[in-house]
């Protein structure tokens, strides 16, 4: 099927430790996506993405000037860069919340077919109870359980479905509930670890994670560095880490002079 490679669910996850941060998670729905990981079909891709906003005074402000990136399927990539360089805006464009002024965006999106039966991932009758299920072993107070369940459902855009019976959800929505379950269970060890775990599980989830924290790079398969509305460099973690540290050293060296 021609559209078999285009199947997937994408979600914006807000990081509870830093609500300004967000991650784009793309969950392919067909194992062919995974098998095709050596082929040039990415999970998330942007080519020459530009976006300008018009201020209240009518000034056209370029926010994204030339952004290109590519996240292979089944991998966790990180998007880094200084404050205000355009990371969140780029993520919103990739997620389809904002239209680019120019350039192209490709994200695996839900289509008509789910290969891995999501009914195997959801075990309780309602969305809320399903997400709470995995917390049973953690000996948490009822308030803590409620808080984790609503936070994780909110993170995957499913909070308004909390009372819905599972069987009334679409395949993609069931997959989001499964991700929310993983996030709820893992909030102590950090959402980044939960996302890493989801991404590692058979390579069926791909994620793009926005962060300022270099230490989070250890969870990533690769990273993209942005500056002033442009993607500057994309590569493996060690290359990007060295690149950023060199920049920081130059910056601090400048002040020592
Ligand atoms: N609608 C808008 N109107 C005016 N300026 C905007 C708008 N959206 C974004 N910007 C500006 O575009 C730039 C990029 O913003 P964005 O939030 O994408 O940066 P960021 O890299 O995520 O920043 P941070 O790391 O501080 O969260 C900022 O200077 C921001 O003020």
UniProtKB/TrEMBL annotation:
Gene Ontology MF annotations: ATP binding; ATP hydrolysis activity
SUPFAM superfamilies with a match to the protein in the record: P-loop containing nucleoside triphosphate hydrolases
Alphabetized CDD domains for the sequence: ABC_cobalt_CbiO_domain1
Record-linked InterPro entries: AAA+_ATPase (IPR003593), ABC_transporter-like_ATP-bd (IPR003439), ABC_transporter-like_CS (IPR017871), ABC_transpr_CbiO/EcfA_su (IPR015856), Molybdenum_import_ModC (IPR050334), P-loop_NTPase (IPR027417)
Top-level taxon in the UniProt lineage: Eukaryota
Keywords associated with the record: ATP-binding, Nucleotide-binding, Transport
Ranges of residues in domain ABC transporter: 49-253
GO BP annotations listed: transmembrane transport
SMART domains for this protein: AAA
PANTHER family membership: ABC TRANSPORTER I FAMILY MEMBER 10
Name of the molecule in the record: ABC transporter domain-containing protein
């Amino acid at each position: 099927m021609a559209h078999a490679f285009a199947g997937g669910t994408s979600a914006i996850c807000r990081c509870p430790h830093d609500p300004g941060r967000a991650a784009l998670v793309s969950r392919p729905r067909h194992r062919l996506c995974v098998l095709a990981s050596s082929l040039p079909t990415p999970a998330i891709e942007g080519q020459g993405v530009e976006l300008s906003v018009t201020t209240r005074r009518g000034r056209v402000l370029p926010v994204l000037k030339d952004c290109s990136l590519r996240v292979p399927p089944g991998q966790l990539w990180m998007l880094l860069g200084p404050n205000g360089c355009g990371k969140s805006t780029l993520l919103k464009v990739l997620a389809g919340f904002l239209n680019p002024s120019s350039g192209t965006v490709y994200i695996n999106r839900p289509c008509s077919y789910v290969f891995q039966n999501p009914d195997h991932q959801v075990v309780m009758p309602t969305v809320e109870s399903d997400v709470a299920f995995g917390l049973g072993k953690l000996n948490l107070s009822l308030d803590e359980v409620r808080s984790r369940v609503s936070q994780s459902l909110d993170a995957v855009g499913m909070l308004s479905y909390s009372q819905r019976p599972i069987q009334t959800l679409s395949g993609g929505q069931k997959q989001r509930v499964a991700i929310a379950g993983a996030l709820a269970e893992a909030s102590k060890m950090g959402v980044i670890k939960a996302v890493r775990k989801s991404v590692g599980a058979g390579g069926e989830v791909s994620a793009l994670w926005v962060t300022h924290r270099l230490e989070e790079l250890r969870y990533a398969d690769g990273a993209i560095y942005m500056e002033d509305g442009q993607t500057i460099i994309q590569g493996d973690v060690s290359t990007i880490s060295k690149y950023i540290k060199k920049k920081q050293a130059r910056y601090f060296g400048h002040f020592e002079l």
